[in-house]
Every structure is written in structure tokens, then in C-alpha cells.
Amino acid sequence: MKKALTIWLTGLPCAGKTTLANMLFRSLLAQGLTNVEVLDGDVVRTHLSKGLGFSRADRDTNILRIGWVCQVLTKHGVCSIVAAVSPFRAVRNEVRAMIEKVGGPGSFVEVWVRCGVEECIRRDVKGMYAKALRGEIQQFTGVSDPYEEPLQADIVVDTSRESPSVSVGRILEVVNRGHL
Ligand SMILES: Nc1ncnc2c1ncn2[C@@H]1O[C@H](COP(=O)(O)OP(=O)(O)OP(=O)(O)O)[C@@H](O)[C@H]1O
Ligand SMILES: [Mg+2]
Asked: Where is the active site (predicted)?
């Protein structure tokens, strides 16, 4: 991969975004890439987006901020890997336009980390689904807030059917094929 790319992982909570982002990061470093950064939604919300909530407006603001950082990184040739639920299609498309304006067509790779909500509830890594189902937290994506599925994702990985390493392999294949 020569060109700066943004690999944007979108999907329900517990679909596997963080898991795949961290594995991709290690794989790209192993390929010899040095300019790689992971932007994880959970981490971003403790810094750049601290204080934002989960209304549609706040979610959109959070995504646009992450998109802006990726735009800056793209300008400097850094590959960004984003792991964020990013449930709304319109703002995902807005971010694509922002990145491609700087990095050119194909510099934004939308990966739909697909997993049925039943399996996500079964995983419930952080216990958030249980809380949402008990009504202890509101506006939880997949339970009480919408997730707009990508209509034209560049890659779809189905984490309920394939192992993380298979998912990562499929993403790398596309990334390397398009950008070598
Ligand atoms: N193919 C796969 N890809 C990724 N994760 C998988 C896969 N198969 C099983 N898993 C498991 O699913 C869980 C996904 O948790 P992870 O924290 O990565 O989700 P997330 O999408 O980042 O959620 P959140 O939005 O809450 O941060 C992990 O326990 C992981 O081991
Ligand atoms: Mg995560």
C-alpha cells in the first residue's frame, strides 16, 4: 500500500471493529508501513469528543471530528484505521467526500463489520447490551437507536461466520490490491 488510506470500520457495538482495527494495525506494521494510526471511537470519546453524548447531532459531530483528523492525516500520507459505530449513512458519506477530496478516489475504504444483533448481544463484551435491554442506558445502537446499514460498502466482513484473521485477510487483500 503506497497511498494514504482511511480504512473505516463501521458496525454495531460488539461487531468486532476494535478487534479488527488492532489486528489490521499490526499487520500493516508487519508489512513495513510506519505511518499508521488507529482512531478508536471509545478512545476518541475520552479526548477529542469528550462531553458529547449519543443524540444524532452529537454522534454526527463525533464522526465529523474523526473524519477531519483522517483528512489531516491523509494530507500527510498517514494511513488511518477507524473503529467507530458510525451508525448514520449520511455522515459516513460526508466523511468519504472529505477524505477523497484530499486523498483522491479510493482513499476512503468503508468496511462494514457485519454481525447480527443477536450475536452481538451474546458477545456483549462490555455489558452494554444488557444495560440497554434493561433500560438502564438509552439511545444504544442496535437496541434503542438505529444502525443504517451501508448500501455500498467497499468491503463487508461477516464476523458471525468468519474468524477475525479471515476478516483481516480479506480487508488486507482489497487494500493491497487497490493500492500497491
Ligand atoms: N471475525 C471476527 N472479527 C472480529 N471480532 C470477532 C470475530 N469473531 C469473533 N469476534 C469477537 O467479537 C468481539 C468483538 O468485540 P470488539 O470490542 O472488537 O467490538 P466493537 O465492534 O469494537 O464494539 P464497540 O462498538 O462496543 O467498541 C471480540 O470478543 C472478538 O473476539
Ligand atoms: Mg470498539
From this structure: 86 (phosphoserine intermediate)
61-114 per-position pLDDT tens digit: 999 999 999 999 999 999 999 999 999 999 999 999 999 999 999 999 999 999
Q: What residue ranges in the chain does DSSP mark as E strands?
A: 6-10, 36-40, 79-83, 108-114, 155-158
Q: Is residue 23 part of a domain?
A: yes
Question: Which residues lie across from 114 on neighbouring strands?
Answer: 158
What does the pLDDT average to over 2-18? 94
Q: What distance in angstroms lies between residue 138's CA and the mean position of ligand 1's atoms? A: 22
Whether 1 is covered by a domain: the verdict is no
Catalytic position from the list 49, 86, 107, 167: 86
Specify if 122 maps to a domain: yes
In total, how many domains does the chain have? 1
**26 located within any domain:** yes
